[in-house]
Each structure stands twice: as C-alpha cells, then as structure tokens.
Specification:
Order of helices and strands: HHHHHHHHHHHHHH
Helix content: 55-70%
CATH superfamily of the largest domain: Amino acid/polyamine transporter I
Shape: elongated
CATH architecture of the largest domain: Up-down Bundle
CATH topology of the largest domain: Amino acid/polyamine transporter I
C-alpha cells in the first residue's frame, strides 16, 4: 500500500470546507480516503492557518453538554464551617484606628520634627508633609480596595496580598514586606537608643556615645521580643502614652515658665517669620527630607492586623484608615506650626532630639512612649503574624 504524505493530507483538508467537520482527509490522486492516526511532528504548524483536525477526531473522550449538566445535578455540596462570631469582637477604634495611628505617629515624628523645621522652615516642611501625604493617599486607596473586595481572615496583610494576587506571587511580595518590617523595626530600636543616650549626654556607660547606642539597642531588642508577644494590651498602652506626650507638648507651649527650656520660647509672630522659610534651602536637602519623612507616612498596613477579628471589615477598614491618617496629618501640621512659633532656628538645627522631647515632663513621658512604641513596632506585629500562621 502506498504511503500517505501527512502534510499533503492536511493541506488538502484545509481547501475543503467539509473536512473540518467530518474529521477525514482526502489524498490527492486516490479515490479512497485515508485517515491518519499519527500526531503532527510539531504542536504548531506554520503552514496551517486553521486548527488541526487530528486533535478533534476522538470525540468519545470529550464529554457532552448533557453529561456535564447531569453531573452538576447529582453533585454533592458541603457547607462551609460556621464562623465563630465571638472571635469577631473588634471595632473600628481598637481594630483599625489604633494600629494605624500608632505607626503614623512614629519615631520620625518624635525625633525628627524639630530638625525638619529648623533645616527647611515651616513652608517647606509643610510642603514635604503634603508630598508624603499624596504618596500615602495612593496607598490608602489601594488598601481600601483590598479590604473591601473579599472575605477577611487571620493573617493580616500577608493573607490579603496572597488572596488578591495568588499564593505564588503573594509569598514573593511578602518576603520584601518582612524585610522592610525588620528594617523599620531596627530603625525604631536605634532611634530609641539614640534618644535615651542623648537625653543623658555627656554621661555615658561605656565612655562612648556610639557604644552606648549599640549596647542599649541590643539590650532592648532582646528584652522586647519575648515580652511583646505576651503583652496583650501593648497597643492601647502605646496610644495612651502617645496622647499624654502630645498633650504635654501642646500645653507646654503655652503654660510654662519663661526660659525653662533654652532656645524654646512662648509663641511669637517674629519667631514664626524667621522660621517661615529657610534661606539656605536647596533642592538636594528638600528631597533628602522627603526620603526621611515619607516612610513615616507609609506605615499603613496595620489596618489589616486584626482584620480577621473585625465585626464588619468591609466598612471598618476604610473608615478607620482614613480617620487615623487624617488625624495624624493634622497633628503633623499643628506640630510644625507650633515649632515655628516657639523654637529658635539655631536651637532647632543643633538639637538632634526634637523639642517635643525637651520639656522636663516629656523626658519621662517620651521615654515611656518610645519604649512601648518600640515594643509594639519592632516585634508585636511579628508575634501577631506567628500566632496567626
């Protein structure tokens, strides 16, 4: 029997309209139709415009629409396990507002606000805050969309990202989130150590400023990690000390003894005019401070820390996130204006520690605030993730 050329059969089948439906090919020059069973050498034939009929000949392996419908009728469905509503007991304030506001009023605010006003002036400081706020608004819109487009479960931002883009890409992105969280925790611990050592300058334990910072940072890190996972109310205690520290600063700007803090005076219009615009402001300094301040505005993923315990996460996450960001933005604006009204420019530039920490009462209030905040920021979020995992 004469061999049949497969490519000739395929080209002949393309010229006939009936060959696509019948699934047979007619060989040129012969009366008998021959059916080829060998698959094509390559999956895609560059000379074949239409689909290859060899893939459609065995119709017995393809289920009919009637079979699919019959299987759907006889399918067995299992109900999802009931949700324990007693675990969903967090509201907007405790579940969304507090984690976000504690991260926004961060070490950048407590330590760098005075330096920002002294180097950049009030006008450029507010402009830097607005640029950082625009970045945060873009992030807030994305977080609100993630918080309202599906079910929320335990796991925080890691669960939300994996649910939205899939576990394969989600775990890759979560690695970078873990690294950024560790770096931010390290920055907070070092900032805490610098604050404490600078308060008691020039009395050093080791005789060196940097060695004291290293020693205190390592000691605090090893103490805070086991403590934070067991301290259930660390978030509320942190917010309480934040509130006390803010009130002591704002009240102290008006109700205090004269010359009690060198370089920090009562509100004065002339002082504000001298601090309005920094004459030595440069573009490089402007963008360097954007790089310094903007990370303090992007710590917004805390809104998902208790997402699995919220009563109505689709409504509570956007509401708490927007309210917390608005209040933190207002606090930044008021603080910058008050520093411009009360602080001497040279004092603001020379002081590494912000004048917010310069009052006698705030030395201890700020000390406690940074301790509790550092505990929460550095390791409590990791403890929540380990518990949920």
């Amino acid at each position: 029997m004469e061999e049949v050329d497969y490519e000739a059969n395929i080209l002949e089948s393309e010229s006939s309209e009936d060959s696509y439906g019948s699934g047979t090919t007619e060989s040129s020059g012969e009366s008998n139709s021959t059916q080829t069973t060998n698959p094509p050498e390559t999956f895609l034939d560059p000379n074949n415009i239409g689909p290859s009929t060899v893939f459609y000949r065995e119709t017995s392996t393809r289920p009919d629409i009637r079979e699919l419908r019959e299987k759907a009728k006889n399918a067995k469905y299992t109900k999802a396990p009931p949700v324990d509503k007693t675990k969903k007991n967090f509201g907007t304030f405790a579940g969304v507002f507090l984690p976000v506001i504690v991260n926004l009023i961060s070490m950048t605010y407590w330590v760098r606000a005075g330096k920002l006003v002294g180097d950049c002036g009030v006008v450029y400081s507010l402009l830097i805050i607005w640029v950082s706020a625009i970045i945060s608004i873009i992030i807030i819109t994305s977080l609100c969309a993630l918080g309202t487009n599906g079910e929320m479960d335990r796991g925080g931002v890691y669960f939300v990202i994996s649910r939205s883009i899939g576990p394969e890409l989600g775990r890759c992105l979560n690695i970078f989130l873990d690294i950024s969280t560790c770096l931010s925790a390290a920055a907070v611990v070092v900032g805490f150590a610098e604050t404490i050592v600078s308060m008691y300058d020039p009395k050093y334990f080791t005789g060196s400023y940097m060695n004291d910072v290293r020693l205190l940072a390592f000691a605090f890190m090893f103490i805070s990690i086991p403590l934070s996972t067991k301290w259930t109310y660390s978030l509320r205690i942190t917010a309480t000390f934040h509130t006390i520290g803010l009130l002591s600063f704002f009240i102290g700007c008006f109700a205090r003894k004269k010359h009690s803090t060198m370089g920090f005076m009562t509100p004065n219009v002339d002082t504000f005019k001298s601090n309005a615009i920094a004459p030595e402001m440069t573009v490089q300094k402007f963008f360097s401070y954007i790089y310094t301040v903007s990370p303090g505005f992007t710590s917004l993923t805390g809104c998902f820390s208790y997402a699995g315990s919220l009563k109505r996460p689709a409504k509570m996450i956007p509401r708490g996130l927007i309210i917390a960001f608005s209040i933190s933005l207002l606090i930044w604006h008021v603080t910058i204006i008050m520093l411009g009204l009360c602080g001497d420019r040279q004092f603001l530039q020379d002081n590494i520690i912000s004048p917010i920490m310069s009052f006698g009462i705030n030395k201890w209030i700020g000390f406690a605030t940074i301790i509790v905040f550092s505990i929460h920021r550095s390791s409590y979020r990791h403890g929540k993730r380990w518990t949920y995992s």
